[in-house]
Amino acid sequence: MLSWTNSYEICGLRLLIVSSAGDPSPFLPPQTEDFQSHGNPDLSIEFYEDDRAAADPLKYFFPPKFVLERQESGFAFMGINGRKRQLGTISSARDRGQMGVPRLDGVWRIAEERGFVEEALQGFVRACLQGRLLAAAGTFLHAAGIELDGKGYAFVGHTRAGKTTLARHFPASHLLGDDLVAIRETERFMLFGTPWPGREGGRVGSGGVPLKAIFNLDRTHPKGLQRMQPAQAVAELAVNAPRLGHQGEEAELLGIFSSAALTLPIYNLSLSLEDDVYTWLKTFEQEEERS
Amino acid sequence: MSEGGEPFQELEPESRLRRMPGIAWRMVDEEAILVNVRQDEVIHLDRVASFIWSKMDGASSLVQIAEGLIQEFDVELSIALDDTTAFAGRLLKQGAAEIAQLDE
């Protein structure tokens, strides 16, 4: 049987997706197309036809809540549905993922079936990418990402901290996303857009920009900028990292965030809705020059 | 008796505590960040608590940890032992540490 294949570069990692169950691209975010690339893969994901998944997709993939469990041979991607069901596997080197799915170009009995398959498929791709990113000193981050004059700025914060509102201050050409971006330490920390940029969209693509600073949006602090102590910064970043809940992942995240906190300026930023974020970025630049 | 009135195993100066394996942690600038995987919780400890936490390896007794605190933070032994025991009790209650058995 012919397989569908496509290659992408996401967060500086080359991803190969292979499917013997039909074209999975309509199940991925539309922005994924902007990451198309070529080259030897750092990570390959395979979707194959699975009878159990095809028998009753609604029951098999419902509800869309997933965790990653460490096993002797690697990781199991589990769906939680009162009990846990293994939906996919990821190799211990986190360079290969496999997931059984129904025929993707088949006919769905009800629309919800397709919706749940889409959530599971995207959840699996994200879990594979997060695993591979962690192995390469990187991670997804719930944050708005901005690129200005070749410099990257990440704005993390709890739900309703103002990430999307802040992102609206910037033209789409400067926005890497308002929900999910990625950071990765190579020679220095880089900031990347992802295929899941959020409501405001953004300029997605395979390239990253050097990360200049991270701002923690928190209105409970006095208005303005306050430099965070490294430990405090690590704690805030850990709170805002998408986690799949196994201990090895937590230890790796703490390592990446510790490195970020010790090499990058990380500030608390308390803004009102009407505040011009450009002004505060200028203030930040002046503070950095002074220090 | 713990703060909430629930009984937990009595702590003695010779008690030895061990960090629970489900807690990922890291020292950053002499302060510990803990991530409790099961409870999806991130905890930032101050320097004194971080010192105590870092010594809870199942081998050091509470009084030995308190003696280390004296050298590090210039406090009296009674205060150091009270602080160590109180913090150890909180960790036990939160399920972040457990008492190591004598034969371990």
In short:
The complex is a heterodimer of chains A (about 290) and B (about 100). Chain A has about 290 residues and is of the alpha+beta class.
Report on this model:
The complex is a heterodimer of chains A (291) and B (104). Chain A is of the alpha+beta class. Helix content of chain A is 28%, strand content 34%. In chain B, 28% of the residues are buried. The chains are: A alpha+beta (291), B alpha+beta (104). The interface between A and B is medium-sized, with 20 and 17 residues.
Q: Give the proportion of residues in helices of chain A.
A: 25-40%
Radius of gyration of chain A: 20 Å
Content-based structural category of chain B: alpha+beta
Order of helices and strands of chain B: EEEEHEHHE
Widest beta sheet: strand line-up of chain B: 5-1-6
- CATH class division of chain B: Mainly Alpha
CATH class of the largest domain in chain A: Alpha Beta
Q: Beta-strand percentage of chain B?
A: 25-35%
Q: Number of domains in the coordinates of chain A?
A: 2
Integer average pLDDT of chain A: 91
Contiguous helical run count of chain B: 3
Helix/strand structural class of chain A: alpha+beta
Provide the helix percentage of chain B: 25-40%
How many beta-strand runs of chain A?
A: 15
Query: Could you say what the CATH topology of chain B is called?
Result: Arc Repressor Mutant, subunit A
CATH topology of the largest domain in chain A: Phosphoenolpyruvate Carboxykinase, domain 3
Q: Please report the distance between the alpha carbons of the first and last residues of chain A.
A: 62 Å
Any low-confidence stretches of chain A, pLDDT <50, length ≥5? Answer: none
Cα-atom Rg of chain B, whole angstroms? 13 Å
Shape call of chain B: globular
If helices are DSSP runs of H or I spanning 4 or more residues, what is the number of helices of chain A? Answer: 7
